[in-house]
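[audit] Reproducing an earlier prediction to check determinism. Same input, same settings, fresh worker. If the tokens differ from the archived copy the diff job will pick it up downstream; this log only records the rerun itself.
[audit] input (145 residues):
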Amino acid sequence: MNYTYAIQIDYFMPLFFFIGGGAIGYAMELDYLNIFLCAIAIPAVIALFSYAYADIEIQLDGVQRQFIYTYSRWGKKTTERYPLDELTYDYSSMFTQQGKSAKLHIRHGKKTVFKPRISAHSLHVEQQEHLAGCLEELGIKRRFN
């Protein structure tokens, strides 16, 4: 059993934040210059943060029984490998007014190997749910808080 999850940079997201930044400036009843500055500053921060944590890839290798986590931080690509038998995870999901929310944390001992980030580059709820199911299928211990 091998699974790969990959998230790439979404270049259209700053466009939506540009519109949202302008809307925030307008809602705060700012003048036109400050509305424009809000529309530029908010997507610039999002784009910078997205570049900092860009392109993650998670692989579950059921044959060699290892968890492979590859991520790019500030343009430097890093790969970490962990034996599946030494991992634990906890997973919770709930429905909110904004839709379904999920939290998956994978740990190696006391070190958190993977957790969702507040950025454009985290696994989607469906991917977290599927990954948690695969971890359970592979016999990884689940921690309950």
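[audit] rerun output stored. Observation attached for the diff report: The first strand starts at residue 2 and ends at 7.
[audit] end
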